[in-house]
């Protein structure tokens, strides 16, 4: 498992280091913080530097702490389809989106480019996809969050109806079993 956090400096070196992990990498988590200055530049740098061809056994990719649309803007989530598009392996079984702050979960959900994500996940190399999670959804807004997500993922669910789409208000329920908590 590799868990990447983007700070305020260059991140191209991170991509080079995780490339050394190679075929043994099964779980990749990428985290950004909504208060970071230059997050888009760092994500662009990371996206340009990483080569997913080194990870033929990648089973799970997590986009952690997705930023609040009101604070950062729509670019805060635009890297998701770009990264998913770079994955060429057919071993990915789950994709996880974790929202940064569930008080503003609807704003973040509206900022996500669902059509692009759905289109990418409908491609042949994602035929092993079993689960798609959206975590830290405000439980008081769950109905609307389900509508946003399901409407956005319609292309995927029509093409691959066996993919389970799950929304949850807690990150720990999904992530903790991985660490034996």
TrEMBL record:
<protein>
    <submittedName>
        <fullName>Uncharacterized protein</fullName>
    </submittedName>
</protein>
